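Sequence design from tokenized structure. All designs in this work follow the same two-part layout: the structure record, then the generated sequence. An example of the structure record is given first.
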């Protein structure tokens, strides 16, 4: 008598019993959340530090003005992080494809985080990389 139970699907596209794409999704989500929430947590401290203020020419500002300017930049950063994925989603659907956009966005976010480690490279360069990375993630 034959066994009528359906056979499990071939495991060619699986890793540890899960689809391979799930690991890419998990890794992308983990790193983008670390990037956004980690950046949000230290962003104002970074912008109001003496080294960064000197790079921007903000050393003549009072503490209140300096904090106000830094919080304004934080607002712009948060807004762009939430708006730029609309552009990246359109590009993923119509031009590059999902996998290529995810990898490109991850590389841009990584370059932005590295650029923050060098005060002379400028905050604006790092923020542009990070926001553009969010667009293509």
């Amino acid at each position: 008598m034959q066994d009528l139970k359906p056979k499990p699907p071939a495991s060619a596209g699986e890793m540890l019993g899960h689809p391979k794409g799930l690991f890419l999704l998990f890794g992308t989500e983990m790193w983008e959340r670390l990037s956004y929430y980690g950046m949000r947590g230290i962003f104002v401290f970074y912008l109001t530090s003496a080294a960064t203020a000197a790079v921007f020419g903000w050393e003549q500002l009072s503490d209140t003005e300096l904090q106000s300017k830094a919080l304004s930049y934080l607002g712009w950063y948060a807004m762009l992080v939430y708006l730029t994925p609309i552009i990246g989603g359109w590009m993923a659907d119509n031009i590059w494809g999902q996998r290529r956009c995810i990898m490109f966005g991850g590389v841009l976010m990584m370059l932005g985080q590295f650029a923050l480690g060098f005060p002379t490279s400028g905050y604006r360069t790092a923020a542009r990389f990070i926001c553009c990375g969010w667009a293509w993630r």
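Helices lie at 20-48, 50-56, 63-94, 98-116, 123-136. We note this feature because it recurs in several other targets discussed in the main text.
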